[in-house]
Design a protein that fits this description.
This protein has 264 residues and is an all-alpha fold. 81% of the residues lie in helices and 0% in strands. The protein contains 9 helices and no strands. Keywords: Membrane, Transmembrane, Transmembrane helix.
């Protein structure tokens, strides 16, 4: 079910998700209207009590949705940042190899070129499917092996070597963060609470004593439309590498085009 949601175009998932959410909310109103109209004898007392309940519930449910949305967006922004940092550090490593002897430098640049293609063509599709990527490990290990074969005879060479090591360490840190972000997602318990809250909200709206049925359904539909949109966007961003709102290999493609391919 989740794979279908993230793999399908938003032109299909958005109307189905939000439209279904609105339809279900309106059906709940239709199903409970007769019960409410039959049981309520004192409308003033009923409206006063219901206003307190809806007000209290609205505060807690609104805070929950806001906190969840902010948390998901922070995860998304963090993932985007680490991908940009990793791509930039690959570019810095590529530039650092230009001062090395031709044979060793050529090998290291070739490894970085292969790494970038692997990340773009293999890692990101795997991460979009929720799979932790591991194919590019071979290029990382090979580059580290070549890096430690550098012989720094002079103080200048030693300084360049230490700088390259520091950049490589930063690259490894960014790469690990990018891979770990594959598993970023809200705990299932959060989604359970959100769906229960959405159902309670629909029932409370149905409990409102409204004489005009069309107006009642319109009120419920408009509120359900907004809540459905918030939940849809939150769900689509919950997995940073999957869905319509996702992080792609654009930063790596730009580094590959502007730095690596431009120097070949």
């Amino acid at each position: 079910m989740l794979d279908w949601f993230y793999d399908t175009s938003i032109l299909i998932t958005l109307p189905l998700f939000v439209g279904g959410f609105v339809v279900v909310s309106c059906l709940i109103v239709v199903a409970l209207r007769r019960v409410v109209l039959r049981l309520v004898t004192d409308t003033k007392e009923w409206d006063r009590a219901l206003a307190h309940v809806i007000g209290t519930f609205g505060v807690f449910f609104g805070i929950l949705l806001a906190l969840v949305a902010v948390s998901v967006y922070e995860n998304f922004a963090y993932t985007r940042q680490v991908t940009i940092e990793e791509a930039g550090r690959v570019g810095a490593l590529y530039r650092a190899t230009t001062g090395l002897p031709d044979e060793l430098g050529d090998q290291m640049r070739q490894v970085l070129d292969e790494y970038m293609h692997t990340v773009i063509e293999v890692d990101f599709p795997d991460q979009a499917s929720g799979i932790l990527p591991g194919v590019s490990d071979a290029q990382v290990d090979e580059f580290e092996r070549l890096l430690h074969t550098i012989e720094a005879d002079t103080r200048s060479d030693q300084a360049q070597f230490e700088q390259a090591l520091a950049t490589f360490d930063d690259f490894i840190e960014s790469r690990r963060a990018r891979i770990d972000a594959t598993a970023l997602a809200l705990p299932p318990l959060f989604w359970l609470v959100i769906w229960v809250g959405a159902a309670v909200n629909a029932v409370l709206i149905a409990f409102i004593h409204v004489t005009n049925p069309r107006l009642h359904i319109l009120m419920a539909g408009m509120l359900a439309l907004f809540i459905g949109l918030v939940i849809f966007v939150t769900a689509d961003m919950d997995h940073p590498y999957a869905g319509e709102i996702s992080i792609g290999p654009g930063a790596y493609e730009r580094v590959l085009e502007q730095i690596i391919d431009a120097r070949e």
